């Protein structure tokens, strides 16, 4: 195996024996093969479309679903990955028969192995290192990781029955492009185009979420459990949240969010459920302790799963793209009602969650809510009460060095406001950093995909202040990344021309020195340094 797609990759270079995330070598090879056969399927859909033939939307969903399954910490199940590989080859073969001009098809488009051992061996040959040139490899992987993040967001929109076929076409074309010999310049263009579609993907999801559940609004979220048994729901899938709330109402079981599901508390449609209590715990990587003390069942709707301890493994359920061997998976395709009754029944037999925190936190500052506060915000900027906005979106992770973000947030002068989204916020959202004339100093827009809100807010501020570019705003970026959803957020920002992004806690291992040079020249990206040095650079 060789995997370097996340920030915690071994030695900052690549996991080669087993993933730091807990991924086995066999799983890594199957994920590589799943990507490869999905490229093959995309070659076929591209060929069909060139011949003017229709490709059903279920095929688009298969492509995005496959990519989603290979995101860091999403699916650890060899069985599930094998089934996806077999299905993809089967579907691809069925479609290939409809292609009139077969001459252009090669490699994965023609692959139709069935034997498990042979599949594993193939997986070991078609991974990251099969591209020999370091820079081409870097740009291909950067594209693929962006596509993985984009697929996850697209999928979340699809489950709410929103589609944008243009995005699917791009994903498939871009997958095919990573099989072709392209120049470095063409690949840089492809990376930026991926970012452009990243913006479209986040916009689609924003539209899907707000149409279905209303606009997030300023909300005080309780951090304290009640006395009833509970179910903890984690990940990003709001449709799963809705189904769970609906099916568990009047059952005597309470519902709590964990990690990236916290923003569900901000949506009007979910507030009407009296058994939806609040949030329990912190970012994904603290789940080993927090799932233990929660006492009740946990539903993982997406990444980030940490291989569970035996003590709670039988209480851990997965659904959607998530999977873990030995944990029960709740099935349900797009448009289908999932059945969470087993989880609810199990909850009733469990003790109530143990209290691990006190008080509450405030969030819900997505674009609509911030626009509603625009006059207040603009006055505070004009009077000098707010001197700078600091975008600190992205992910949290286990690495010790991430305490930098807590220290940075704490050291920021009192006339700065943090704009955040994603699980990165857990490093500072409980610090009580106060407010500026009633505007909280930490404005949480929501999940990592709600970084889209931060973009809209920046554009709105630029418009109000009559500026030509968001780069002229008193707004700086200090972004933390961990996995591939953060990659698409980053590429989206770059495609919008955002300059001077500070990225940490370390730069991606998959960015080669030459590709980094391009990013620095074009966008002035830089790594974080020390809190003081970065404050000097960004704030003072
Ligand atoms: Fe975090 Fe995990 Fe949202 Fe990620 S929970 S790390 S970028 O999956 O998706 O912010
Ligand atoms: Fe290593 Fe990250 Fe890949 Fe897991 S996802 S194998 S930790 S690089």
TrEMBL record:
Annotated localization: Cytoplasm
Modified residues (Cysteine persulfide): 395
InterPro entries given in the database record: HCP/CODH, Hydroxylam_reduct, Prismane-like_a/b-sand, Prismane-like_sf, Prismane_a-bundle
Its EC number(s): 1.7.99.1
Keyword set, alphabetical order: 4Fe-4S, Cytoplasm, Iron, Iron-sulfur, Metal-binding, Oxidoreductase
SUPFAM superfamilies on file: Prismane protein-like
Protein known as: Hydroxylamine reductase
Cellular component GO terms held in the UniProt record: cytoplasm
């Amino acid at each position: 195996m060789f995997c370097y797609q996340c920030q915690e990759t071994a030695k900052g270079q690549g996991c080669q024996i087993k993933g730091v995330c807990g991924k086995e070598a066999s799983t890594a090879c199957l994920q590589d093969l799943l990507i490869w056969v999905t490229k093959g399927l995309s070659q076929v859909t591209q060929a069909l479309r060139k011949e003017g033939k229709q490709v059903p939307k279920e095929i688009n969903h298969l492509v995005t679903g496959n990519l989603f399954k290979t995101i860091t910490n999403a699916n650890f199940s060899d069985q599930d990955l094998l089934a996806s590989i077999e299905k993809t080859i089967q579907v691809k073969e069925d479609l290939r028969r409809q292609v009139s001009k077969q001459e252009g098809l090669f490699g994965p488009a023609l692959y139709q192995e069935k034997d498990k051992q042979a599949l594993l061996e193939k997986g070991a040959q078609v991974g990251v290192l099969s591209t020999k040139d370091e820079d081409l490899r870097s740009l291909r992987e950067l594209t693929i990781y962006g596509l993985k993040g984009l697929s996850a967001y697209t999928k979340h929109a699809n489950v709410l029955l929103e589609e944008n076929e243009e995005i699917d076409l791009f994903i498939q074309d871009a997958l095919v492009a990573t099989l072709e010999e392209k120049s470095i310049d063409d690949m840089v263009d492809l990376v930026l185009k991926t970012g452009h579609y990243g913006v479209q993907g986040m916009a689609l999801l924003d539209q899907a979420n707000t149409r279905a559940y209303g606009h997030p609004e300023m909300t005080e979220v309780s951090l304290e459990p009640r006395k009833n048994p509970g179910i903890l729901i984690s990940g990003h899938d709001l449709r799963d949240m809705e189904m769970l709330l609906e099916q568990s109402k009047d059952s005597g079981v309470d519902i709590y969010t964990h990690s990236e599901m916290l923003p569900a508390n901000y949506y009007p449609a979910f507030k009407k459920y009296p058994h939806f209590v609040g949030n329990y715990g912190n970012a994904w990587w603290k789940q080993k302790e927090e799932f233990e003390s929660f006492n009740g069942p946990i539903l993982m709707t997406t990444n980030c799963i940490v291989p569970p301890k035996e003590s709670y493994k039988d209480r851990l359920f997965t659904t959607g793209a998530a999977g873990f061997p030995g944990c029960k998976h709740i099935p349900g395709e797009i448009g289908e009602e999932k059945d969470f009754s087993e989880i609810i029944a199990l909850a009733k037999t469990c003790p109530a969650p143990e209290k691990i925190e006190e008080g509450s936190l405030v969030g819900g500052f997505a674009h609509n809510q911030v626009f509603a506060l625009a006059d207040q915000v603009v006055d505070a900027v004009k009077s000098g009460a707010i001197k700078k906005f600091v975008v600190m979106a992205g992910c949290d992770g286990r690495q010790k060095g991430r305490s930098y973000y807590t220290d940075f947030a704490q050291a920021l002068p009192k006339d700065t406001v943090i704009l955040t989204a994603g699980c990165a916020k857990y490093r500072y959202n409980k610090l009580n950093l106060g407010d500026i004339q009633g505007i909280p100093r930490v404005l949480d827009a929501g999940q990592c995909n709600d970084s889209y809100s931060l973009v809209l807010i920046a554009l709105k501020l630029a418009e109000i202040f009559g500026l030509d570019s968001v780069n002229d705003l008193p707004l700086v970026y200090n972004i933390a990344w961990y996995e591939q959803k953060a990659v698409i957020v980053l590429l989206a920002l770059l495609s919008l021309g955002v300059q001077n992004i500070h990225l940490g806690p370390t730069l991606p291992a998959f960015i080669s020195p030459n590709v980094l040079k391009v990013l620095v020249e074009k966008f002035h990206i830089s790594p974080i340094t020390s809190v003081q040095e970065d404050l000097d650079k960004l704030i003072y």
